[in-house]
Amino acid sequence: MEIEARIDTQSLDEDQAEALKALVAACKLAALPDEKTRASAPADDFHYQITIKDEAEEYNIETSYGAASDEVRALARKLTLLGRSTRNA
User: Fold this and answer.
1) Residue 3 lies in a domain
2) Whole-number pLDDT of residue 37
3) In the beta sheet, which residues pair with residue 59?
4) In the chain, which end has fewer C-beta atoms inside a 10 angstrom radius, N or C?
5) Hey, what long-range contacts does 59-65 have (CB within 8 A, 24 or more apart)?
6) What pLDDT does 84 receive?
7) What was the pLDDT predicted at 21?
8) pTM for the whole thing?
């Protein structure tokens, strides 16, 4: 199953937007390694391609659930839930 969604924090209520921003901040995107782990992940693992954009920067994360940090996993879970809710809206 593939889920693709564009989530703009300005379209979320204030609490959701702040929670998402906190998850993004916890990931310390600028410090993440610039490597892709998808090829080395097991075939039955979840794979994530996440792009985060703000006014000044754009960050791309491509990883598997097993290879991701706890912070990236938490962000991926939140984005998955938001993606499902916007798809079903």
Assistant:
1) no
2) 47
3) 52
4) N
5) 59/29, 59/30, 59/32, 61/27, 61/29, 61/32, 62/36, 62/37, 62/38, 63/36, 63/37, 63/38, 64/37, 64/38
6) 80
7) 94
8) 0.81
Domain that holds residue 20: 9-88
Residue 66 has a pLDDT of 85
Residue 10, amino acid: Q
Calculate the CA dihedral of residues 72, 23, 4, 33 and round it to 10 degrees. Answer: -40
CB neighbour list of residue 44: distance below 8 Å, 6 or more residues apart: none
In a domain, 2, yes or no: no
Query: What is the C-alpha to C-alpha distance for residues 74 and 25, in angstroms, rounded to an integer?
Result: 12
**Mean pLDDT (10-residue bins), the chain, 89 residues:** 81 93 92 61 78 89 87 92 72
The verdict on residue 1 lying in a domain is no
> Looking at the 3D structure of the chain, how many domains does it have?
1
26 Cβ contact list (under 8 Å, min separation 6): 71, 74, 75
